[in-house]
Amino acid sequence: MLTLILSRVSFALFLLAVYAVQRFWFLRAWTWLGSFSNANWRFGLHAGLIALAAALLATLLDPLLGHGVSRLSFGGLNLGKTLSTVARLWMVASVFGFLAVESVGAIEWVTNVAARLRPGAVAGEFSPSRRTFFQYAACLAGSTPFLAATYGFAAGRLRYTIERVDVPVANLPPELDGLRIAQLSDIHIGDYMPPREIARAVDTANDLQPDISFVTGDFVSGEGDPLDACITELSRLRAPLGVWGCNGNHEIYARVEDDAERLFREKGMRLLRARSAVVEHNGGRFNLLGVDYQRDRMVNGEHTRPELMLREIEPLVRRDMPNFLLSHNPNSFHRAAELGIELSLAGHTHGGQLKFEIVDHSVSPARLITPFVAGLYRLPMNGHAGAAPGSNGLQKAALYVNRGLGTFGFPVRIGVPPEITLLTLRRA
Questions:
Q1: Does 70 lie in the same domain as 50?
Q2: Which residue(s) pair with 257 in the sheet?
Q3: Fewer C-beta within 10 Å: the chain N or C terminus?
Q4: 285 and 415 share a domain?
Q5: SS3 content of the chain, % helix, strand, coil (to 5)
Q6: Closest residue by Cα to residue 323 from 243, 230, 388
Q7: Domain region containing 398
Q8: What is the pTM of this model?
C-alpha cells in the first residue's frame, strides 16, 4: 500500500514539474511578445501562442482523446504525426532548456551576492555589463537543448554504430572460444523506425558474419504497430546457428507475445518463451534459454521480489555446459548470476537515449530504472543465496546490454547512438 501511495505521489510531482516547466516558457514567450509596439501584432501573436499551447496539450493527451489528433491530415500530409513529433521534441528540449536557464540564473545570483559581500562594495551597486553577460549566457544555454534535440531527431537516432566486444565467459569450452554473436534489440517499428531502417541494420549485422544472431525484444511500441513487417525484415538475418529471440515489455503492452512467437516460427527463427535449446558449434555445446519480459517493478501496486525473476527457467539451467540467457530486462541479471547462468543478453534501456558527461560521470535517465544501462557487466556467479552446491563464488557471470535500434517516448538520441553488437566469446 505504501509503495502504491509513493508511486502516485511521484507521478503527481512529475505532472507538477511538467506544468512548472511549460508555465515558465509560456510566460517568457508571453512577456516577449508583449514588447511589440503594434497592438494588432501583439493580439495576433498572443492568440497564436495560446493556439500553440492548446495544440501541444491536445497532442500530449491524444491517447486519452481517442487518437483524434494523430489521425489529422491536410493535403496528403500526416499533420497528426508532424504535431506529435514537434510536441515530443519540445517536451524533452523544454525541460533541459529550463534547467539550463535556471542554472545560469543561479550562477548569476551567486556572483551578485559575492559582489555585494566583497570589501569596499557599494550598497545597491548594479553592474550592467554583468547583467548583459548573463542574459546572453542564458539565451545560449537555453537554446542549446533545442538544437541538440533537433540533431538527435534528424541524425542521432539513425546513426547506427557497430560495437565489437570480447566477452569472457565462465566454463566456456575451448571449441566455443571465438564464437561470434550478432545482437539487435529494441527495434520499435513504427513512425520513427520504418522497415527500410530495419533492413539497413539487418544488412549491417549480416556483414559482420556472425555464427549466431539474437534479437532481444521490443519489436513494436504499441498496438497497431506492424509486427509482421518488423519480423519479416529480421528474418533476413543470416547465421549458421540460426536466429533466436525473446519478447520484450512492449509485446506485453501490445498483446502480441503469441503473435511474435508464431511469426518467428513461420519465418524460420526461434522465439524462446521460458524454453531452452542446446546449440552445438565446432563440437562444443551451450544451453540457450529465453524468457518473456521479467517484471521487476510495479505489479498490482507492489514490487516484484527479485527471487521470483526467472523462476520459470530454473529447471532448465544446465550444469554440464554453459548457459546463455536472452532476457529483455537487464535487471534479471542478479538472479541469472545466482542461478549460475554464465552469459545474459538484454536490451530495454536504450542506453537512456540521452547521455551527458559531467566532469568524469555520465548522466543517463536509464539509471533511474537499472544499474545496467549499456555495455558489459560482471557479477559473481553462484555467490549469493540459492547458490549451486559446491560453488566457490569465484567465477563471474557476464551481461551485455544493447542500446537498441529504435526509440520510445521521444524520437531522439543524444550521446547514445543506436547499436548493432558483435560479441566474440572468450574463455574466462
A1: yes
A2: none
A3: N
A4: yes
A5: 45, 20, 35
A6: 388
A7: 161-427
A8: 0.82
